[in-house]
Amino acid sequence: INGVVTAATAKSVFISYARATAEPHAKALVAALGGRAFLDTIHLLDGEPFPAPLADAVLDARVVVILADSTYFRSRFCRAECLLALSPRPTPGRDPAHLVIVLGPGAGADVLDDLGHHLAERNWPHFDETARIVNLVEKGLAAAQQSIREIDPERTARVCKHVLDGLILPLPQPLGNIPAFAPRLPISLLD
């Protein structure tokens, strides 16, 4: 994948969140983690295409923090980040050290069910518990010596291709005699 994120700029922690409901909490977490955390509004260039660089940032991280609430799972980009973070096969009997789930206000079974039973059956901190979140991230970084991409490379590559194919919309194509782009409007309609 070609993008803005490179090995030199990759961060060990990726923060996945819905801007509408969790941006202040994501920014507080970035401040608490220092320069180790990737946040889209800080690390992606304005006006640049972002699905591929975002995928690279998730896969090059060793820990992904998911700020999960009902808004999170309504965003196709958040769902894509979550799928990428979940792409390595879970190892039975081992903690998913590369994942930290943070629950938003009112997050209940509906949000946890979207994460799968191996994550739903754990005690996770809430948005406003930054110290607990940082503690889990530190434990995850100590345990996860590989990036997400390195944990299960073949499966992760397949999931990444599937995710990006669903996010990057193809250019419009002509349908028979129907043009792909609207024709120029007559001058009389432009006034």
What this model shows, in words?
- The protein is of the alpha/beta class and about 190 residues long.
- Helices cover about 45% and strands about 10% of the residues.
- The chain contains ten helices and four strands, in the order βαβααβαβαααααα.
- Strands 2-1-3-4 form a four-stranded parallel beta sheet, sandwiched between helices.
- Helix 4 runs antiparallel to helix 9.
- It is globular, with a radius of gyration of 19 Å.
Outline the biggest β-sheet. 4 strands, parallel
Radius of gyration: 19 Å
- Briefly note the structural class of the backbone: alpha/beta
How would you write the strand order of the largest sheet?
A: 2-1-3-4
* Count of helical regions: 10
Estimate the helix proportion, in percent: 40-55%
Question: How would you describe the oligomerization state of the chains in this entry?
Answer: single chain
Unreliable spans are 1-8
Which H/E pattern describes the elements?
EHEHHEHEHHHHHH
Strand content: 5-15%
Shape: globular
Could you give the distance between the termini?
45 Å
Overall strand count: 4
The overall pLDDT, averaged over residues, is: 81
Please specify the SSE layout and strand pairing.
Blueprint lengths: L12 E4 L2 H15 L3 E2 L1 H4 L7 H10 L2 E6 L7 H10 L13 E5 L5 H5 L3 H4 L9 H14 L4 H4 L1 H15 L19 H4 L1
Parallel strand pairs: 1-2, 1-3, 3-4
Helix pairs in contact: 1-7, 3-4, 3-9, 4-9
